[in-house]
Fold this protein.
Amino acid sequence: MTSLADFPPLAILRHHGLAFFAFDFGRYVVAAAVVSALIFTMRRLGLGHRKIQQRRASRADLRREVLQSVQAVLVYAFASGFVAWGIDSGVLRKPEHGTSLGSDLVLLAAMIVAHDAYFYWAHRAMHHPRLFRLFHRDHHRSVTPTPWAAYSFAIPEALVMVLFVPLWLWLVPTPVWVTLAWLIFQITRNAMGHAGYELMPRWWLSTPLTRWINTTTHHDLHHSGGFNTNYGLYFTWWDRLMGTEHPRYAQEFARVVQGGSQSATGQSATGQPATAPAHAALDS
Ligand SMILES: [Zn+2]
Ligand SMILES: [Zn+2]
């Protein structure tokens, strides 16, 4: 007699669930801790002025960000059982033959570009008033994000985020190491985007070589008042193309890297108080 426990994804989770959780939780903790250590070092080196907002995240903010991130990691570990089942059954694909390092790196770059597009549109959709409360409100409880907000998602948002993996593997045969490298890249960039301190060099937006790569200021503005702007994750392409880049992004970046202070009233770039998000009406 078969039972629910014999359902292949659950059987896989019984054997490997702890390892899936350890990998996802481990990369979250390492990425957030490394970015936190970088911020600590910057402050010791006299770069404390690179803090983007005057407001400081409270202990309650930090606790919420960690607990919600653990919740998201549990969703990812659970979803991994279904992805592993998909690979075992051939629905999700691995290359049939050996691949070269060069072709794997091209595939990794393609996966990052595709994920940036997926993230932009999924993120923008979750800002729709009908979807915001269920999917994305919990993430925006962080008005002054810290690196520990990297996976601070409600369960529905975590499911949307993890859905990219089976979609990609369904379309593109991808070696396991490329998927793992992408997961590490993704959490690292996510922790950087929520750092609260600008990490990029001051010339970053002055040259076409780098200005298409997102900075911490870019995503910080999305949290602190530029609620309907700056949806992108890795690159600025989609925000520029769709006209959703924050109008004062470049000025805010320049202010932060040059050590300029916010106005005496603590107003953010959008004129919203740094402590009150522009989406307060949605948040009630
Ligand atoms: Zn958002
Ligand atoms: Zn965020």
Residues 139, 145, 194, 219, 223 surround zinc ion (ligand 2) (CB under 6 Å).
